[in-house]
Design a protein that fits this description.
Largest sheet: 3 strands, antiparallel
Number of strands: 3
Distance between the termini: 102 Å
Structural class: alpha+beta
Strand content: 15-25%
C-alpha cells in the first residue's frame, strides 16, 4: 500500500494561507494610506494657519506705517480699522498663497476684521485633497474643508 501525502489527497485547507496573507497585506496598505492622508490634511491645516498668522500680522503692520514708530511719544497700540485689516489680509493672502499651498485649493479670506480696534482677526478657509485618497475625496466629498483663525495685536511697547 502506498501512502498518500496531504497534497495528493486534495487537502481542503490548501491555498487558504495565501488568501489570508493577501487580505492582511491589503488591510496594511489601507492603514498606511489613511495615515499618509491624515498627515497630509494635518500639514495642510498647519500651512493654512501659518498663512492666517502671516495675514493677521501683515494687517497690523500695514496699519501703523513708519510715521508711528518715528514718534518720540508712541501710543500704546496702533489703531486698526476693519477696512484696513480686510484690505491688508486680502493682499497678504494673494501674495503668499502660492508659497504655502501644499495640496490646498480655493484658499480665501472669510473674515478679516478688528473686534476691538487693537486686534486684527483673520479667518481663512481652503479645500484640501490628500494624496493616495484624493480620488475618493474628489468623488464623494469634493475635498476636505479646512478653516483657520488667527489674531494679531497692535501693541507698540
Amino acid at each position: 500500500m502506498a501512502s498518500r501525502t496531504r497534497t495528493e489527497a486534495g487537502d481542503p485547507e490548501s491555498g487558504r494561507i495565501l488568501l489570508l496573507s493577501l487580505g492582511c497585506v491589503v488591510l496594511g496598505l489601507m492603514i498606511v494610506a489613511m495615515v499618509v492622508a491624515s498627515t497630509a490634511v494635518h500639514l495642510d491645516r498647519k500651512r493654512l494657519l501659518n498663512l492666517a498668522d502671516m495675514a493677521a500680522v501683515e494687517a497690523v503692520a500695514a496699519q501703523g506705517g513708519p510715521d508711528v514708530f518715528g514718534l518720540v511719544e508712541r501710543p500704546d497700540y496702533l489703531p486698526l480699522t476693519a477696512s484696513g485689516v480686510a484690505d491688508a489680509a486680502e493682499a497678504s493672502v494673494a501674495a503668499n498663497v502660492a508659497f504655502g499651498a501644499g495640496h490646498m485649493s480655493r484658499v480665501r479670506v472669510v473674515q478679516a476684521t478688528t473686534p476691538d480696534g487693537v486686534t486684527a482677526e483673520v479667518t481663512l478657509t481652503a479645500v484640501t485633497n490628500p494624496p493616495l485618497i484624493g480620488w475618493f475625496t474628489d468623488a464623494f466629498l469634493d475635498g476636505i474643508d479646512l478653516s483657520a483663525t488667527s489674531r494679531a495685536r497692535s501693541h507698540t511697547r
